[in-house]
Fold this sequence. Notes:
alpha/beta; Rossmann fold; 12 strands; 3 domains
Amino acid sequence: MLRERHQIFLSLFVASDAAIVTASAWGAWWIRFRLMEDVMPYGAIVDDHMIPFWTTAPVMLFVAAMLHLYKPRRDEHFLREFKSILRTTIIGSISLVAVLTLFRNELTPGVTLNNLQFVIWAVLCLVGMTINHYLLRNMLKWARRRGFNIRPVAIIGTGPTGQQICRTLRLNSWTGIQPSFFITHEENSDLKELEGLPVCGGLDSLDDLLKKESPSGVFIAMPNAMAGRIEDLMTVLGNYPMDVRVVPDLTFRFIMNMNTSDLDGVPILSIRESPLNGWGGILKRFLDVMGSLSALIVFGIPMLVMAVLIRLSGPGPVFFRQRRHTANGREFSIFKFRTMRELSPEQAAAEEKSEEWKRGDQNRVTWLGRILRRTSLDELPQLLNVLRGDMSLVGPRPLAAGEVADARDAWQGFMLRQNVRSGITGWAQVHGLRGEASNRIRLLYDLHYIRNWSVLFDFWIVLLTIRRIFKDPSAQ
C-alpha cells in the first residue's frame, strides 16, 4: 500500500512539472515576442517561432529522472531539493538545445529558433518547478501534521539509540514517519512504557507483534553488543512488506560523513570517509592549482619586493620554514615570509622550550614583519606549498607536530580534521579563530567545514578571507 501511495505522489509531481515545463515554452514565446519585441541584441529578429512545446516536457522529465529529482524526500530539507531542481533545469536546458540542434531537420525544418527564448524558458522552468515542489511539499507536510499520510513505525531497541530516534522522529513530524511502539531488545524486561509509547514485547515475540500491529516500517536501534541478532531479525522482517532501517549505535559527533555503498554485493557503511575522495578531491586539487598559479601571477612582483625588503631588513633567510602536519598526518615544511629577527641555534632551542615559542615573541618582530602579519601577507609563500600538494587554498590550518600530539590526546575526534589537506585559510580563520584560539573551538569549525564541503563553500570562504585580510584583529 505504501508503494502505491508513493506512486500517486510521484505522479502528482511529474504531471505538474510536465505542465509547468510545457507552459513555460508558451510563456517564453509570449515574453520574447510580445513583451520584448523591441529587444534586438543581435539585430533584427529572424522569426518568431516558438520552441516546439511537445519536446520540452519529455527532455526535461528524462533529465529529472536521471538526476533522481523525484526520489522520496520525507526527511530532507527543501534546500537540497532546490539544488536538484537547479541542476535539472541547467542540464535539461542544455539537453533541449542539443536535441533541437542535432535533429533540427526532423523536428524544426527550415526554422531558426531565437536564443533568448531558451534563456527565458529555462528561468520560467526553474521558478515554476521550485514553486511547484515547495507548495506540494508543504501541502504534504501540512497534511501529515494533521494526521494524514502518516506512516506508523516500530522501534526495535529500548536503549539510548532507540530513544534518540524516537525523539528525533517526533521533532521532525513533517516527515510523516510516526513512532507507534517499542520492541525491547532486553530479555525478561518488565518495561511497559518508554518515551510515552508502549513497549509491546521482546524480540522473541517479534513475528506475533508485527502481525498484530502492522507497522509500515521498522527502525532497528539495538546496542552494538547485539549486532549478531540483526540477521535473525531480517529473516523475520523479510516476511512483511515494510521499510526496514538500521540505526548504528555510534557516537555521531565524531562521524565525518556517513554514506552506504556496496562492493560486489557486500554492503559497506562509510563513517569516516573524506568527502574529497574521488571526483571531489580531483576537482578541489584542480582549483587549488589554478587558484595558486593565478595568485602567484598577481602577487609575483609584490612578493619579490617583499623578499628584497626582508633581505635588507637584517640577517637571516627570506623564508621562515617550520614542520607542520597535513592530510593523513604527513609532515611538510611550511613557507612564510620571515617576520622576526634571526636567532642563534642556542637561542632558538631555548625558545622552543618556552611559552614564548607558542605565542611568538613579539619583541623580535621586525617593523616590516608587523605589517606583513597584520595584513597576512607573510603567508603568501604558502601558495608554493599549495602547488607542491602539501596544502590546499582552503582547509583546516596546519598544526605543528607538538600541537597535533597534544590536541589528539586532549580532544577525542581531533584527528578527523587530518583527513583533508591543511589550508592557507579556512572556516575557523574567517571567524577570527587563529593565534591563541582554543584548539577545541577550532576543531568544531574545522569539522563543520569537512562535513559540509563544496566548491561553493570554498569560494565563500575565499571571499570572506579577502574581506577580513586588512581588518583581522587576531592577526599579529
